[in-house]
Write a structure and sequence with these properties.
Structural class: alpha+beta
Oligomer: single chain
Number of domains: 1
CATH topology: Ribosomal Protein S5, domain 2
Number of strands: 10
Radius of gyration: 16 Å
Order of helices and strands: EEEHEHEEEEEHEH
Shape: globular
Helix content: 25-40%
CATH superfamily: Imidazole glycerol phosphate dehydratase, domain 1
Strand order of the largest sheet: 1-2-4-3
Strand content: 25-35%
């Protein structure tokens, strides 16, 4: 059996201190402490439903604004995902699926082809959920796709409660990353006709 794919990444600035340990081939164990309880919950759902092992600790100037912390978490987690995927040889590469959460339905399409891009049409009904600013979710994913070198499209098929909408989003992203990151035993090199990723 191939070794589990994992990585550690960290980033420390005057605004934030973020440390991440991420394993692609995990079992869904998550320990997340960001100072933002709702974001902790979303990242735990991402790990549990993607069957990733994730340890993430972050401290930031959230008394100023949540933005610095949310963005830097996205950057560091994305970089850890990129490192864990290695040269991306043998990957399935693409995944697309929908996840319901009660009245909400969210679709995610993912490409691990090395080209960072994020598009979405999420329209949360409320800005604040718990104490979290839901308008920062796109900023989180923009930073993450830069670090992870992937293309991510998030489609709101049906909206409703903001908590449910974002929960469906993070669950769908976890499931899609799990599917796209799987090894295809038929493929020997990188999943690209160009012979390289990116």
């Amino acid at each position: 059996m191939p070794a589990a794919r994992g990585a550690r990444r960290a980033r420390k600035t005057k605004e934030t201190d973020v440390q991440v340990r991420f394993t692609v081939d995990g079992s869904g164990k998550a320990s997340v402490r960001t100072g933002l309880p709702f974001l902790d919950h979303m990242l735990e759902l991402f790990a549990v439903h993607g069957l990733f092992d994730l340890t993430l600790k972050a401290a930031g100037d959230i008394e100023v604004d949540q933005h610095h912390t949310v963005e830097d978490i996205g950057l560091v987690l994305g970089a850890a995902i990129d490192d864990a995927l290695g040269d991306r040889k043998g990957l399935v590469r693409y995944a697309s699926l929908q996840v319901p959460m009660d009245e909400c339905l969210v679709g995610v399409a993912l490409d691990l082809g090395g080209r960072p891009y994020f598009a979405h049409d999420l329209t949360p009904k409320t800005r604040i959920v718990g104490s979290f600013d839901s308008t920062l979710v796109p900023d989180f994913f923009i930073a993450l796709v830069q670090g992870a070198r992937c293309t991510l499209h998030v489609t709101q098929v049906r909206g409703g409660n903001t908590h449910h909408l974002l929960e469906a989003t993070f669950k769908a992203f976890g499931r899609a990353l799990d599917a796209a990151a799987r090894r295809d035993p038929r493929r020997k090199g990188v999943p690209s006709s160009k012979g390289r990723i990116g």
